[in-house]
Design goal:
This protein is an alpha/beta fold. The protein has two domains: about 270 residues, NAD(P)-binding Rossmann-like Domain (Rossmann fold, 3-Layer(aba) Sandwich); about 35 residues. The chain has 15 helices and ten strands. The strands form two sheets. The protein has an eight-stranded mixed β-sheet with strand order 5-2-1-6-7-8-9-10, sandwiched between helices. Strands 3-4 form a two-stranded antiparallel sheet. A hairpin with a 2-residue loop joins strand 9 and strand 10. The longest helix is centred in the C-terminal third of the chain and has 27 residues. The radius of gyration is 20 Å and the shape is globular. The protein starts with 9 loop residues before the first helix and ends with a helix.
Length: about 400
């Protein structure tokens, strides 16, 4: 198998002019030309993040495992009215400041008042990307590059990728584990491995100053003790292939740990080692505790094996949200900020909502490069055949 670390640069792949950010072009003026791919954008925090990006004039491609659902939601978001009060008057000072700075306004044709304004929204496109099946992930990436980007935006490049989609999964009982066509657990594929393949296939389709945002969670800190200093101690292979976890650690915590490790691997290989010189940053974020549909879906899945525990877990989640929860709009903003805020120039960092932190403050495993390399090498073995088959189609 050939090495995929020596792929040609994006300049060799396309003649499109990269979107440059320089002193003569204010960042906010580039927003209407920006295109962001956001996975899991049909509900919850992903949908809200897409909605906020559209409000800023950014073009957004949202994905779902259901193509009809993705297109329907994209159409609805394009048709929704944008209310200035909804974002421009947020209680959160940082959120308000960024939106006031970047929001593109044009005179309202329906009003003669010079102070009246409406907002120029971006374009929203919905597409299928079933992260559970690596074959379908690769096919969707080809369709994105060959059809969706050229037909809808007149380019073959992206400005950002937000790895947002995720599933909670089972309770760690291997009898209830759902495996994908490649033989690994559904939660591992949707939360981590599908995104790994997608990012790799699309890495040369990111324009200059491109950004990758990985959505993680503080469930890693809460559920995985620092006494686990290696993946073997966590029985990671049992989780990947059988969704059998260590003690009471839920599969979701494992997979969010993998997502965080993935972000740091991309930073090391693509930013530090300059394998993707056009890439500006790769960061990961815990957007906050929100009452999204993930908690409801987890309850429904857990009810199949243990109805009592399902309602207990759901109740605990509600209590946690009551004391430390935030609105979905604020959680979505924390994702958007890493993708668009010009003041964020760092890479390889962990953001706890708005606060920038060092990954060592998240979990000790993230500081161990040899452990991250284990995950990278294992992932490459699985996705290698798909890179071999589909990379030429994306690069042509």
């Amino acid at each position: 198998m050939k090495s995929f670390d020596s792929m040609p640069s994006h300049q060799q792949l396309t003649s499109s002019t990269p979107l440059k950010q320089d002193s003569t072009t204010p960042f906010e003026d580039t927003l209407p030309n920006r295109i962001v791919l956001l996975t899991g954008g049909t509900n919850g925090v992903g949908r809200e993040c897409a909605k906020q990006m559209l409000a800023l004039g950014v073009n957004v491609i949202i994905t779902s495992s259901n193509e009809e659902r993705a297109k329907q939601v994209a159409h609805c978001m394009e048709c929704e009215d944008i209310c200035e009060k909804e974002y421009g008057a947020q209680e959160d000072a940082m959120m308000k400041s960024l939106f006031e700075k970047l929001w593109p306004k044009i005179s309202s044709p329906s009003s003669s008042s010079s102070t009246s304004s409406r907002f120029k929204k971006g374009k929203c496109i919905g597409m299928e990307m079933d992260l559970m099946d690596l074959e379908k992930v690769a096919q969707s990436c080809v369709k994105l590059c060959q059809e969706i980007l050229p037909n809808h935006f007149g380019t073959d490049q992206l400005d950002g990728i937000v790895n947002n989609a995720g599933v909670v999964g089972s309770t760690g009982n291997e009898e209830n584990a759902v495996l994908n066509p490649q033989g690994v657990s559904k939660t591992f594929s949707v939360c981590y491995l599908g995104h790994f393949l997608m990012n790799y296939l699309l890495r040369n389709r990111l324009r200059e100053n491109g950004r990758i945002v990985v959505v993680s969670s503080n469930v890693v800190q809460l559920m995985i003790s620092d006494r686990y200093t290696s993946l073997e101690q966590l029985d990671w292979m049992k989780m990947i292939y059988h969704e059998k976890t260590k003690g009471t650690i839920p599969p979701y915590a494992y997979n969010k740990l993998f997502c965080s490790m993935h972000c740091l691997n991309l930073h090391d290989k693509w930013i530090i080692a300059k394998e993707c010189p056009h890439l500006q940053s790769v960061n990961y974020v815990h957007p906050g505790v929100m009452m999204t549909n993930l908690l409801e879906r987890a309850k429904e899945e857990q009810k199949q094996s243990s109805p009592f525990l399902a309602y207990i877990s759901y109740g605990i989640g509600k209590i946690i949200h009551a004391f430390s929860g935030i609105p979905i709009s604020r959680g979505a903003f924390h994702e958007l900020r890493l993708a668009l805020d010009p003041s964020i120039t760092c890479s390889g960092k962990f953001f706890f909502m708005q606060q920038e932190k060092d990954p060592k403050d998240d979990h000790i495993l993230l500081t161990r490069k040899e452990e991250r390399e284990k995950l990278w090498n294992f992932s490459m073995k699985i996705v290698g055949p798909f890179l071999e088959r589909y990379s030429p189609l994306i690069e042509q």
